[in-house]
Amino acid sequence: MKEHLDAETVREWGRRYSNWGRWGQDDHRGTLNFITPARILEACALPRRGLVISCALPFDDKGPQTGLAGRHNPIHTMLADGGDALAGAQDFLPGGFRYADDSVTMPLQCGTQWNSLAHVFYDGKMYNDRDLCLVTSSGALANSIDRIKDGVVGRGVLLDMPRYLKLPWLDDGTRIRPEDLDACAEAFGVTVESGDIVLVRTGRMTRCLEQKSWAGYCGGGAPGLSVTCAGWIYTREVAAVATDTWGLEVIPNETPDCFQPLHMIALRNTGLLFGKIFQLDALANACAEDGNYAFLFTAPPLPITGAVGSPINPLAIK
Amino acid sequence: MKEHLDAETVREWGRRYSNWGRWGQDDHRGTLNFITPARILEACALPRRGLVISCALPFDDKGPQTGLAGRHNPIHTMLADGGDALAGAQDFLPGGFRYADDSVTMPLQCGTQWNSLAHVFYDGKMYNDRDLCLVTSSGALANSIDRIKDGVVGRGVLLDMPRYLKLPWLDDGTRIRPEDLDACAEAFGVTVESGDIVLVRTGRMTRCLEQKSWAGYCGGGAPGLSVTCAGWIYTREVAAVATDTWGLEVIPNETPDCFQPLHMIALRNTGLLFGKIFQLDALANACAEDGNYAFLFTAPPLPITGAVGSPINPLAIK
Amino acid sequence: MKEHLDAETVREWGRRYSNWGRWGQDDHRGTLNFITPARILEACALPRRGLVISCALPFDDKGPQTGLAGRHNPIHTMLADGGDALAGAQDFLPGGFRYADDSVTMPLQCGTQWNSLAHVFYDGKMYNDRDLCLVTSSGALANSIDRIKDGVVGRGVLLDMPRYLKLPWLDDGTRIRPEDLDACAEAFGVTVESGDIVLVRTGRMTRCLEQKSWAGYCGGGAPGLSVTCAGWIYTREVAAVATDTWGLEVIPNETPDCFQPLHMIALRNTGLLFGKIFQLDALANACAEDGNYAFLFTAPPLPITGAVGSPINPLAIK
Amino acid sequence: MKEHLDAETVREWGRRYSNWGRWGQDDHRGTLNFITPARILEACALPRRGLVISCALPFDDKGPQTGLAGRHNPIHTMLADGGDALAGAQDFLPGGFRYADDSVTMPLQCGTQWNSLAHVFYDGKMYNDRDLCLVTSSGALANSIDRIKDGVVGRGVLLDMPRYLKLPWLDDGTRIRPEDLDACAEAFGVTVESGDIVLVRTGRMTRCLEQKSWAGYCGGGAPGLSVTCAGWIYTREVAAVATDTWGLEVIPNETPDCFQPLHMIALRNTGLLFGKIFQLDALANACAEDGNYAFLFTAPPLPITGAVGSPINPLAIK
Hints:
The structure is a homotetramer. Helix content of chain A is 23%, strand content 21%. In chain A, helix 1 (7-16) runs parallel beside helix 8. Chain A is globular, with a radius of gyration of 20 Å. In chain A, the strands form five sheets. Chain A has a nine-stranded mixed sheet, sandwiched between helices. A two-stranded antiparallel sheet of chain A has the order 2-4. In chain A, strands 7-8 form a two-stranded antiparallel ribbon. Chain A has nine helices and 19 strands. Chains in contact: A-B, A-C, A-D, B-C, B-D, C-D. At the A-B interface, helix 2, strand 1, strand 2, helix 3 and strand 3 of A face helix 2, strand 1, strand 2, helix 3 and strand 3 of B.
């Protein structure tokens, strides 16, 4: 990286690593296009153990949110429950049938999540040359999460940085550069290929869970991808990147001139699917156990019409 | 089925088709236990086309809910959007970074969904001899949806009843009996095996979409599984059953003595995972196209702590 | 009114009836400023019967909303209830203390309501020359409802149009002009004075309740104030106007060139407080009973920070 | 107070201070019945200054809630805003009319509030011999807040304890006994009469605002009414009591045997309206200024059908 990454350089990188128009003007899927039918079939051939591992953090009021940007933890309420049955409120149902129903109020970015390609913009535009005027109080008319409802399925690759570095977790501010990703991949006998879904474990969440505190997790210091990964992501034709952090990128960002510069380049220009707040500890243990860092991966978003993200329960199948 | 299915007979069938204790007193997964690692590996070997098909209805205010039982369609609101960027509300973010965030308020049973094993009870108990007192305003302390977060992955089988019967859709009140399921399966060259996730298309949703009206869909008349399928489900060791209807069972129910008697038996006693409001039209077309009615199927629930259901985006991978 | 009320004429009237700057550049209260301490004391002297009458429609899922503009009826859920007590979920509380708590999700404009002065704008501005950029996803930084939290208290005057006209209700599309208001007031022995809160009953709600249908109530045809009332409101120095309709103005509007032209003029330029969906039937009966159409009136908004409206329970004290 | 207040004594006091049946078996208003028309007229005659003072804390995400009992601070979201207007999302509206709308999700007990008479129960009953089975996930079928929609209007009396004691605020755990209330009232030249709404300022909120921290406010230590006030409330025929604290009673409670024993007696048996989280600082200053501690008071609840409480904006009119 050059000495100082200014706002103009970020734009220059954006143009350099742009996929606008690559899959046509009607495209809303971005780098998910790299996951071809052939790649899906290869991914399906990976499992050896018949083991399924969730990469989702529980969605509840003990989640990581502390109010930043209006994001709060999920609010779960009951519409009907066992107490109602006891109180006789369901006696109108014949034969003793009784039931429970429930509801949730949750920001779509409050926990384990995909960002849609309408999540980030600059200079008035989002992915594929679309105007930000398309994203209003009524939702996103383009690049919304429901545009990728027939996904996300492909080959997942875990890059377990702290295990590679023999650390419990990476410190806040630790930059993960392309060469770090490559070295980690090589150490674990895996290579990142076109259409891969790359899961980068930093240990940031591990630390929160061990210390029983989410303080600083949302928006505070964090290890994460260096903005220099923009070229690596583009060239490798990565389909998606996800981490166990709030914002995927290293915080503090590598430049004071731009907030989340990798988002600016990779989400808006490259059309990359960003995953956040993934819980990768169980998967990391399973990979260490069997020595296999590639797996079938599936993480379908809820197709909420016009949404700019979705809570997900990502599954690794080994 | 005997002439009259009274409330006691439903209980008798419940005892007959019970899996309580089968996987231990600590089990919260029920028939998902039939999906063994071996079955998962077999399912992964099924895809031939590398094609992924969503079975979710869009989650939005045009959904099927009309207020029954307090269920409403999803309410999607924006926490930040392109308009804010235009208005200068995000100018504090350096480098021109702008973003959108959003939130949803939705009953967990409002659209394409899994019911957890805490969704239905009678005589004070739910699956695996657990007291309904465990399901209160604070959520379910047992049998909740987050207990199956490492799922659902397995072999899916589509039983496309209207296509088999050469009808656009089954009429309301049409009972689908075990022999109907078997005949349909045989006609399409597939057999239902232990651990399968059985998707039964009735065309009820097709009709609503064609007629552009959800009137009657929620709680009104519907084709659906006969209560006599309880034995078939139990014996075949089916892992899950889902339909394109509101309630899976035929409505009107086959007896006035019990509401949703198949739920009473199969959900509470057998521990079966019920799926509802699945959008199976695209999948049906794809199966008809390639003649292959078995596929890899994945439908991870959101692990909302203590929830009695979850919206899902089920994916069939062919 | 001239033959055709075009968009430019609306703006001209806006300038003519403007109160911008009248109470200083920092004013967020608009016509509520007409309610001086002296007027409040006069209003307090009005009651003769010691009778309090609510003018609120119940807030529940049987309300008038049918989805227009994203407005839905209130969703009321329980956080704790008697069933929980029965189920033992509150046994940790000593001495047998048990309790119930609840929550609501509601659009602030879904029922009986005040609009704040940030509710309507045109040509980039809202009341008192403020930019609409001040109203974003984070709420309104000016003219918000919490700015009038020390209100609304004053002299209320009911103008019961259908009773005056000896009709059960006014037909949809009926224009209520200044001369109609004056004639009605005179007939009932009351005059509208500076600082008054004028409640205009049209019978539109009466009709819905009698016909047991809200069809058309929200956004459909309605009797209501003519745009020509703009001058009357300005000259009389009315503090607030409220009706038993969805939108206060006559619908269809008197010109196709502007939507809700009276809002454009009176809310944005005059700074008038608009009240809607008032339930005025009980009050109308009480006024007819005692022949007294002026009363102490109080309708405090919830001071939700940055809100552009508030549900209210208006009280008339006779 | 006797040495030890055990659970049985609380019940004995409950019987002693019970108003069950006093206003008939159909009564849902409890002590509000003490506010007769004559008392309302007397209250209306009190104002001398024409001054209106809100006693509500702002409803926003800076509120006092920290998650106890599932209570969270209000969540305010926009359904339409100025940014939408800028983005062209409202261009379909003719003549340049533009608007903003909004929504709130809030526990009804999260801020300044009335508790309904369905808020507290013990031994299976709530006010007026009603079964707690009437309070389920569908709301309260009796004693709900909408039952008092034609209220609350009456004579308010402020008892400013810290000013009386020349303290900035009362310490946590400070018991306010009947004799303290009487002494304070006498010092400020006011007497508590039948039908009065008694506002007791403790300074607990003042302290939070001054220290810019709500830590401990909800459910933590607090000054408050002693359980011995139960008799005073009953005998004086108080219509309502409200404080600037979370729970009105002194915390720690005066006995470990019962949680909130004054609630048990006064809310359930006496049928007293409880008000909480009132912001009484501005009112206290105004009373000190003019030396008048009685005023017209109005605090209408939102008539949310079946609700067990309501956020309010209480107004004192001096």
